[in-house]
């Protein structure tokens, strides 16, 4: 099954290359970015400023679908792509959580951005702690590896 997805905006950041971007935004909470919503979708931002954090769904437009089992950034052992956060996924779709700093019309200033500059935005959803936080969640193979340095020349 195939379907068409239309970008609703563009994510702007200071991360020009994958080497400049943090593995996850939580590792660089001060990193600011701007989410630009295209005019035809700007009405959909009504009340977005009532939320402190947002999910951004985006297209890894500079990544290619890759192997279904591969070595992720934070481990030396291969894992299935669906058990990683690697960008080279079958549909090249990414998700990140950012803090909403300010809304100015169709522009959202966010912090904790880990997305490359000029990345197509597919959707936004509010982060709702009661729905989205699961303190009992397990970390799988990530356990104890989150602070590992990002390898040079990583995808």
From TrEMBL:
CDD domains, alphabetically?
Answer: UPF0066
Keyword terms, alphabetized: S-adenosyl-L-methionine
Residue ranges constituting the TsaA-like domain according to the UniProt record: 5-136
Which InterPro entries does this entry report, sorted A to Z?
Answer: TrmO-like_N, YaeB-like, YaeB-like_sf, YaeB_N_sf
Concerning Gene3D superfamilies, the annotation shows: YaeB-like (2.40.30.70)
The answer to whether keyword S-adenosyl-L-methionine applies is yes
The family note in this entry says: Belongs to the tRNA methyltransferase O family.
Q: What is this protein called?
A: TsaA-like domain-containing protein
Taxonomic source organism: Pelobacter propionicus (strain DSM 2379 / NBRC 103807 / OttBd1)
